[in-house]
Design brief:
Strand order of the largest sheet: 3-2-5-6
Number of strands: 7
Structural class: alpha+beta
Number of helices: 8
Length: 377
Amino acid sequence: MATAPIDPSPKSAGQVKAYGDGRQTSPTPLVQIWIVLSILLVLLWLVGWHYQQGDGWIHLLPVVGIAILVALAVKVRPGKDIQPERAVIPKWNADKPDESLAEIHAYVIGEAAKSIDWYWRSKRSKAFLSQLIRFSAWGLAAVGGLLPVIGTLFQSPLVNSLHADNGLWASLLLGIAAALLGLDKAFGYSSGWARYVLTATNLHKTLEEFRLEWAELMAKAGTPLTSANVQPLIERATKFRGDVEALVLQETKDWVTEFQNSMAQMEKDVAAQLASLKTQVDKTIQARQSAEQPGAIQLQIQNASKADPSTPIDVFLTDAKGVTTQEKATGTSWSKLNVLPGQYKIKIQATVKGQSAEDQKAVLIEPGKVNDLQLTL
């Protein structure tokens, strides 16, 4: 009896065709052109906004640029998760071993093609975001490195108005580029892209090996097929199905490991940043408290004995805002506590031999220090 040819079912064949087409789904030059155009629209908006040109329509440019990026992201978004076939379950019919074997063959081929197709299709979003982030980071780093040179070599009203030779612009652009690369590393766009391609390639290799070994086992089984001589074929199909799931499982484990490492590194970086920020805030608070700590004034009046006993010696303390406080000194000294830091003018005034006599001096009150002064009537 002739053996019926064992071909994938129409559904499996469709999946294999989809897999074959999916291998060519890398971002096309047209997609890259749209990415560059959206970035140029945002840059044009920044220039127009800086020079206050274009009236209100200039603010539509970033909206259009972002809309283009969102549309591209939606176009290359990954499909649903890989789901096992629930409707078709291979069944063995002892009366029709050739048809049963064909059903098993079609089932394992279809499930493998489904996984391969998913990886080739899903890697498009990873590739798109990876290329977008890395192209943007490269562009920002290049512009950041060239700006100081352009600002120094080319003197023009446009360059001078942008202050291109200011290192802050370069620092800003390089900081954004570094942040984009950190975003790529944290969410694994580039690594996920490479991981998907590697897994799809390994699945394809496993599929081709199965096809050739299946043909070899079919030749050894001969005709007619019976329940006895199909056992190696069933075992090979079972092993192939397990190999496919093992590759998918390994990719998932790699993703989990990468995700956990990224989260751990992110938590470590955040903790370090928080610790650094806390230290900086504590230093700022301490410096502010130290700067606000009041000082004191210890004044010695050299010839206080010359003042008429019937009139006291007046002491005037004027701060930087022009607010003056007046006190009276007794004896040859005068002291003032809890004086806020800053610049002051201190003046003494008294009556000496029926005439008004005075002396004054500017003084800088430092935090937490006692300022010793001497004035003479």
